[in-house]
Amino acid sequence: MDVLIVGAGPTGMGASWRIQELHELGLNAVHDWLLVEQCSAPGGMAASFRDAQGFTWDIGVHVIYSHYPYFNEFLKDVLGEGILEHPRKGWVWLKGNYIPFPLQNNLQRLPVDDLLACVASFPNAATANPMPANFSQWINQHFGTALAELFFLPYAYKMWAYPAENLATTWTERKSSSKYQNVQRTSLLPLVENLIRRQDTPGWDGAVPFPYPAKGGAGALWSEAFSRLPREHAQLGKGVVSIDTASRVATLSSGERVRYASLLSSMPLDAFLERLDEGFRAQLPAPVLKHSSSHVIGVGVHGEVPEHLRDKFWIQFAQLDLPFFRISITSNYSPDNVPSSGAFWSLMCEVSESPLKPVNHDTVVPDVIAALRRVGLLSPEHEIASVWHRPIAYGYPVPCLERDAYLEEVQALLKENGIYSRGRFGGWKYEVSNQDNAFMQGVEAIDNMVLGTEELTYMHPELVCRTIVDRLAGRSFLNRHKMVRPA
Predict the structure, then answer these.
(1) Are 162 and 354 in contact (CB under 8 A)?
(2) Residue 255, Cβ neighbours under 10 Å: how many?
(3) In the beta sheet, which residues pair with residue 276?
(4) At what angle do helices 435-451 and 69-79 cross, to 10 degrees?
(5) Helix (H, G, I), strand (E, B) or coil at 392
(6) What is the pTM for the complete model shown?
(7) Alpha carbon of 310 to those of 208, 305, 388: distances in Å?
(8) What is the tens place of the pLDDT at every residue in 255-271?
(9) What is the DSSP annotation of 42-93?
């Protein structure tokens, strides 16, 4: 094969889609290629499942924030009219209040004592601060000690399952510059203005709704895209068992041996490296990567969604005595996510786990249901129709302090041997791990193999914002109709 693609999640699908498109454009540099996926269905971490009671569950929250015109066209090509669009409404639940996301823009909703403490400790923009050594210091510098202790530090621990002092800060350069992120920077003046005017400033751009498949959950996008690939090039139920990097031969779980010129993997990087030959692994630095695991718990409920939840899509919880860090009202995403709209509603909870944050697997489901009742998301009158629990081995790639140096060395060694490890866990960069980012990592990896163009998303995460990508798209490979090599 010219190219062997391992994994049929967004990254593998982006690569496969791009190869097909290059053929249509007359660039036949990739003659033979194969996509293999060890599971029986495509989608990877972006897959969806329908339970026996008729509720559809995603593996975590899959809200698309597209930064790419190319991905937008892909979305329309695959789903056509089968796309619902919703306003971007995220919330934080704190001290018994629902506060519009992001919290730092809407402190006026806090109790008075907490509000005064947050304003009093809010950092002075004119004050020169030393370079933060970790994410905990970064949080305190940007939001002050009171807001850090009230929300950011406990939420970081609940989400990543590692304390903020274990995290680096390089990833924040992209995330904090985006209006769509928790760590969006702000200043004291707009906070005071909101307080005086008694107004909210949601962090979402209301003019740009987020898309969601009308049927089949978030995974419907990847299932439909996979169905359009030639069967001889895309095969399910086949994983990679081992790889001889010297001879460039991969052995599959089916027993087949595939010789490749280039290999693109979206497997978790640590698991992928274990499949390489001993000679190559001897060159690798000591492993340092960290990740969280997840428990996704769906709760289907009889009746109509409660009034106070009808305008909410996801809610964040920082309190350490609550097991979940985020809850999504999945019946608000699509009426197809429940057996009968109006007769049922559903919510999905996410609980993180790591060696530093263990979870009791035997009690996590009843613990979550009890917490839902405690915070009023489930009332005593609510009758549960379905409970769905799926443990996920890989939840979030943690941007740990040692990550960048390790990735730079390992990815360089892999590239020398014709191997690209990309995607949410293949690339292990949280800052570009959303569905659109992962898809474009696959697209750009193929373009790099064929055209020699730069992999902007993976190599330059700080550039992945709407303004810059839109500007590049009109004259580069990011535009599907213009195959001009960038200067």
Answers:
(1) yes
(2) 8
(3) 243
(4) 110
(5) strand
(6) 0.91
(7) 20, 6, 22
(8) 999 999 999 999 999 99
(9) S-GGG-EEE-TTS-EEESS--------HHHHHHHHHHHTT-EEEE---EEEE
